[in-house]
Amino acid sequence: MTLKEFEMQSALGSLPNTVKREMAENSNTPINILVRLSVGRNKYIRRRVAMNPNIHNMPEEDLIKLSNDKNYAVRLQVASNPNVPTKILSKILFTLKKPVKDANIKYAIECNPNASKEDVFELKLQNLKKVLRKKRKKRIMSKIYGRINKG
Hints:
By secondary structure, the protein is an all-alpha fold. It has one domain. The protein is built from 9 helices and no strands. The N and C termini lie far apart (79 Å). The model has no long low-confidence stretch (mean pLDDT 84).
């Protein structure tokens, strides 16, 4: 299917979501159609685009948009895709904000073979600092409770 045919069928509403999902995950789908699917309203289709093995061929700005998707599962899938370029993975790390959900995205990047050694090192360092902060806090709290119980 050409981009023109895709756009015509989409505009007419004659392209069902099941076909779009199949196109989104098919490695033979042309990149320009993947780009169109990546900005659609259906989060399941955007997630399948994020899983596509040819995602690395998408223009950088479109890949960045997909990595900043409003849907958490789409962002996680981009971070997990082993074909996402290192540069994009680094940008994802730089933009993370929500601690709980971001922990899963950080872990996905840490496990991604395309993640740079520097980014993986930084993630491991952050995890170590977090563990040390928790241990320090526990130690301080136990000292405080020990003094209260003695007094």
